[in-house]
Amino acid sequence: MAGAANSSRALLLLLCALLYLARLSSGNSEVMKAVNITWSSINFKTILQWEPKPVNYFYTVEIDGDRLVRKKICIHTSATECDVTNALKDVKDVYVARIYSEVPNRDPDDFDIPPYEVSSEFIPYAQTEIGVPTIKSFEQKEKTLKVEIADPLTPYRFEGNGSFRSIRDIFKDDLEYTLYYWKDQSTGKKQENTKSNLFEIRIDKEKNYCFYVQATVPSRSTDRSSQKSSVKCTSVRRDELDGLELEVILIIVAVAVGIIALIIILSVVAYKCTRSKPAATKKESVPLNA
Ligand SMILES: *[C@@H]1O[C@H](CO)[C@@H](O)[C@H](O)[C@H]1NC(C)=O
Ligand SMILES: *[C@@H]1O[C@H](CO)[C@@H](O)[C@H](O)[C@H]1NC(C)=O
């Protein structure tokens, strides 16, 4: 009897321990505050990111600006990021985000503010990364090289026609492009700036040029410049190239003709030698066979 009671108590203890462990590992009552909150923004497309992944609770993001009435977005999300682009349309405003950690089925009469964490400040105009500009077209004619840049687009649209605003539409004269260019196969790099999206530079005729562009917002103190675009090179027109390289081609042809002539002469000589040789060996071999 005493043995049975003991073992059932042991079983109960074991069950309790298991239940406790299960609770611990599922972490079901632990609501964590958001940490490592970062703004990732490029050409005014802005994503707020944070950690950790929630278990049995949710996050809600609230955007607050100096000129904005607080606005909740990504309500009750179990993700750890939120696209906040549409809440930051006033691009020169100073924003902060609060990230609330909320339990599901909260008592509606509970007016306590759920735990939250506040992000660093973010000013889109000053902090969004400038995307890599692309070279839309280029043309080399006589002594001018024309290069046209495609202004990177933002996610914001014009109200009238619904087309996307470019970063030029937002930065206006506060956006510059720099063209870095050099004569092909030389290392001397030159540069030129423009506040439009078109470069027209004076170059040497009949030489190939290579170049890339970079966008800059000069008013900024940090993150002023975009990454560099890919490098493009011109190739001067065929007829000009032919004129340029005629001498080279003539030399190659002359050398080739010389080599062929040499081969012919050598093979003729070799042929003559082999023809005269068997006669000689025959004469010598006759006495041996006989
Ligand atoms: C926050 O970032 C630090 C450094 O990158 C990292 O060590 C830490 O694990 C992160 N916190 C969470 C909750 O992931
Ligand atoms: C849309 O409208 C803006 C001005 O309201 C103008 O600058 C832009 O060129 C227009 N875009 C198109 C595709 O018509």
UniProtKB/TrEMBL annotation:
Q: Has UniProt tagged this entry with the keyword Protease?
A: no
Output the Gene Ontology cellular-component terms. plasma membrane
Q: Which UniProt keywords apply?
A: Blood coagulation, Disulfide bond, Glycoprotein, Hemostasis, Lipoprotein, Membrane, Palmitate, Signal, Transmembrane, Transmembrane helix
Q: Which Pfam families match?
A: Interfer-bind (PF09294), Tissue_fac (PF01108)
Q: Where is the signal peptide?
A: 1-27
Q: Where in the cell is it found?
A: Membrane
Q: Which domain of life is it from?
A: Eukaryota
Q: Does the keyword Protein transport apply?
A: no
Give membrane topology per the record: Single-pass type I membrane protein
SUPFAM superfamilies annotated for this entry? Fibronectin type III (SSF49265)
PANTHER family reported in the protein's UniProt record = INTERFERON/INTERLEUKIN RECEPTOR, TISSUE FACTOR
Q: What is this protein called?
A: Tissue factor
Please give the organism.
Answer: Podarcis lilfordi (Lilford's wall lizard)
